[in-house]
């Protein structure tokens, strides 16, 4: 066997022994992730991997050789958050996020989908990029593939968070920071954990 063939066989053998892969940061692509799915990989952790816009629980399940658990969100965020204050969201509405990046909201439309990016900005803020499942409904408004981005900050007690997003549906960019209150073009929100028993650290 030639040297290159031996090295290739060894690399394949090592890959087949991998049980968990962690990607932290932007140095990973959709193609790089899907290339791993032929291995017996029971757990795939993708944190802050904003460039992996096609890696969702559903797409990995379809492509993987065997069942894979995907984590796209940190555990402190993958909770049930209740709206305390928001100009365009009803107080009491619950937004539930799961570790695999899927989410459900307690409202009639735009109420489920996938988190495509959860990226740190500075020391305390995060950019949350989402895609809703109801693409047909969004297409009726001329917004197919709409991916709004929200600036998120966990409060010091770990039980509440603040958010900011653009008010125009034509602007899906993320605000650079979270103002103390609404300002032209930016809507702020205040959320708390539905069951705030213990604070959660970053």
List keywords for this structure.
202 residues; 2 domains; eight-stranded antiparallel barrel; three-stranded parallel β-sheet; 4 helices; 11 strands
Written overview of the protein:
- The structure is a single chain.
- This protein has 202 residues and is an alpha+beta fold.
- The protein has 2 domains: 3-71, no CATH class; 80-193.
- 16% of the residues lie in helices and 33% in strands.
Outline of this structure?
This protein has 202 residues and is an alpha+beta fold.
Please outline the helices and strands.
Layout: H1 3-16, E1 20-24, H2 30-34, E2 43-47, H3 57-63, E3 69-71, E4 80-86, E5 94-97, E6 102-105, E7 112-121, E8 125-132, H4 135-140, E9 149-154, E10 160-166, E11 186-193
Parallel strand pairs: 1-2, 2-3
Antiparallel strand pairs: 4-5, 4-11, 5-6, 6-7, 7-8, 8-9, 9-10, 10-11
Strand order of the largest sheet: 4-5-6-7-8-9-10-11
Report strand %.
25-35%
Helicity, as a percent range: 10-25%
- Can you write the helix and strand succession as a string? HEHEHEEEEEEHEEE
Number of helical regions:
4
Instruction: Give me the secondary-structure category.
Output: alpha+beta
The major β-sheet equals: 8 strands, antiparallel, barrel
Query: N-to-C terminal Cα separation, in Å?
Result: 50 Å
Count of domains: 2
Query: Residue-averaged pLDDT, rounded?
Result: 78
Global morphology? globular
Low-pLDDT ranges: 14-18, 197-202
Number of DSSP-assigned strands: 11
